[in-house]
């Protein structure tokens, strides 16, 4: 009726109709339906209508969200890419930006997925909701094939991916814990810490959130933090092989990290999403290989990069039963509660694909797929080195981390985009220590990597090899 009195009876019916459609799309009738009516009617909104259109609820905004700076990094990169293509529709852009797999899922693993789907069409094979912790057979396979039975299947929680598990872990830890992150790091650790209320506001000068300990990782410390100068925190987010630096921590470094966490009574949340890229025997694929880690570490992992499952969505988290809170409660008990309450189990089709990943044929396909991306990494690394840039990472990891001393990473990002039509990720998006770097991803077709190198060499070739001098190019 209110709508009626504002716009005239002729619009009421249409308002209801549009309102229903709006609700289908997840928006409220009042806010969207009426706006559409106003637009449709081309009516000059009277001031009560204007007030109505600007209506706010009485629900307070979660303060923590107002602390977040700008948008989430990766949609920003996608947006920049779109904007460039709008202005230059004929540009043959090469994306070495967002770390998304490009190669098809190999045949044996894909057959696991399709058979998983086909089973659902049969009386005997049909399944609905599964266990919140995942299919037992898959948990068992993960424990035996990826952890050599160092952990038990009950300690494995199957999920829809590592990123989602990081957010759910934050739900377990809550707002009162203190947090350390590598600087630079995958932005999800910091952003979920902010959303969960673990931080204060950002400092405009340092670009650091109050309450977070930023463990600087740069060339000067071989991309491993100086733990002797790191204050104690409850949680330590640690990613190896690292996104974005491409550094992979050695056994000795991980032993140091574990000793540090045990000494401080901290919990390490170890993100091993790029573990299959490790080919060097001195670099462990799991922190749980380190003595003492079972009492101080959680490992988050994913099939995304193993098998090209970024769209399929399948991951897992290992929460060892020996890991306990200060009051003695097993952390796994609370994580299991979250998985059963705030998650409804990974897709049954995806889990069948996961089973196929972990048999002999599947593991061989994964190795082949990873070899493909590792060869891309070599091409990109050597291409950048040939220009005299300071290049890091890219040996047991899919990312190349290139330094441009004295320059802003967003400027370098723009320069690569405009001069070479190559999309990268500006290091500043990963934390204040990334401000002079850009990240190149090897998740791309081979020819794209070769062409990217050719274009970058053409644009920047002939520059002196000295990195300081390289910083002056424009
Ligand atoms: C863009 C260290 C990429 N939209 O696929 P998941 O959820 O199992 O794993 C995500 C993930 C977890 N841990 C680390 C990662 O680097 C990633 C993926 N990162 C990147 O380019 O840095 C993809 C980013 C995606 C996202 O927001 O994660």
Distance between the termini: 62 Å
Mean pLDDT: 89
Shape: globular
Number of strands: 13
Q: Give the strand line-up of the largest sheet.
A: 2-8-7-6-5-3-4
How would you describe the overall organization of this protein?
β9 and β10 form a beta hairpin. α2 crosses α3 (29-41), α7 (107-119) packs antiparallel against α14 (348-357) and α9 (162-173) runs parallel beside α10 (187-196). 43% of the residues lie in helices and 11% in strands. The strands form three sheets. The chain has a seven-stranded mixed β-sheet, sandwiched between helices. The chain has 474 residues and is α/β, with parallel strands linked by helices. The termini are far apart. The chain is built from 18 helices and 13 strands. The radius of gyration is 25 Å and the shape is globular. The model is unreliable at 1-43 and 464-474 (pLDDT under 50). It binds ligand PL4. The site of ligand PL4 has 15 residues, from α9.
Give the SSE layout.
Blueprint: H1 2-7, H2 12-24, H3 29-41, H4 47-53, H5 63-67, H6 73-87, E1 94-95, H7 107-119, H8 136-146, E2 156-159, H9 162-173, E3 179-183, H10 187-196, E4 212-216, E5 235-239, H11 251-264, E6 267-271, E7 297-302, H12 304-307, E8 315-318, H13 331-342, H14 348-357, H15 360-385, E9 390-393, E10 399-403, H16 409-420, E11 422-423, E12 425-426, E13 437-441, H17 446-460, H18 467-470
Parallel strand pairs: 1-11, 3-4, 3-5, 5-6, 6-7
Antiparallel strand pairs: 2-8, 7-8, 9-10, 10-13, 12-13
The structure holds ligand PL4.
């Amino acid at each position: 009726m209110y709508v009626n009195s504002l716009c005239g009876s002729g619009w009421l019916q249409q308002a209801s109709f549009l309102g229903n459609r709006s609700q289908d799309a997840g928006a409220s009738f009042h806010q969207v339906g009426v706006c559409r009516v106003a637009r449709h009617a081309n009516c000059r909104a009277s001031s009560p209508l204007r007030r109505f259109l600007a209506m706010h609820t009485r629900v307070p905004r979660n303060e923590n969200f107002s602390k977040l700076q700008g948008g989430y990094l990766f949609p920003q990169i996608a947006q920049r890419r779109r904007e460039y293509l709008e202005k230059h529709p004929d540009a043959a852009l090469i994306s070495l930006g967002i770390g998304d797999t490009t190669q098809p899922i190999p045949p044996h693993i894909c057959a696991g997925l399709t058979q998983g789907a086909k089973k659902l069409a049969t009386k005997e094979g049909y399944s609905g909701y599964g266990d919140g912790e995942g299919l037992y057979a898959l948990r068992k396979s993960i424990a035996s094939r990826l952890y050599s039975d160092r952990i038990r299947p009950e300690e494995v929680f199957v999920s829809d991916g590592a990123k989602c598990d990081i957010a759910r872990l934050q739900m377990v830890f809550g707002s009162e814990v203190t947090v350390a992150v590598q600087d630079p790091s995958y932005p999800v650790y910091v952003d979920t810490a902010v959303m969960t209320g673990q931080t204060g506001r950002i400092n405009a000068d340092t670009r650091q959130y109050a309450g977070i300990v930023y463990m600087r990782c740069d060339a000067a410390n071989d991309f491993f933090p100086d733990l002797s100068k790191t204050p104690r925190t409850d949680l330590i987010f640690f990613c190896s092989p690292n996104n974005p630096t491409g550094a992979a921590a050695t056994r000795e470094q991980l032993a140091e990290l574990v000793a540090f966490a045990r000494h401080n009574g901290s919990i390490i949340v170890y993100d091993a999403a790029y573990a299959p890229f490790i080919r060097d025997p001195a670099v462990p694929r799991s922190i749980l290989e380190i003595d003492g880690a079972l009492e101080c570490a959680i490992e988050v992992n994913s099939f995304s990069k193993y098998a090209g499952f970024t769209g399929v969505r399948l991951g897992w988290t290992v929460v060892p039963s020996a890991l306990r809170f200060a009051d003695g409660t097993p952390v796994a008990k609370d994580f299991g509660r979250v998985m059963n309450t705030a998650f409804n189990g990974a897709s049954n089709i995806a889990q069948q694909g996961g089973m196929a990943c972990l048999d002999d044929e599947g593991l061989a396909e994964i190795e082949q797929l990873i070899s493909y991306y590792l060869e891309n990494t070599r091409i990109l690394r050597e291409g950048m080195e040939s220009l005299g840039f300071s290049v890091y990472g890219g040996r047991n990891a899919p990312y190349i981390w290139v330094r441009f001393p004295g320059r802003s990473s967003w400027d370098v990002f723009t320069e690569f985009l405009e001069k070479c039509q190559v999309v990268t990720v500006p290091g500043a998006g990963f934390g204040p220590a990334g401000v002079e770097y850009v990240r190149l991803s090897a998740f791309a077709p081979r020819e794209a990597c070769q062409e990217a190198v050719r274009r970058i060499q053409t644009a920047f070739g002939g520059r002196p090899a000295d990195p300081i001098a390289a910083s002056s190019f424009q």
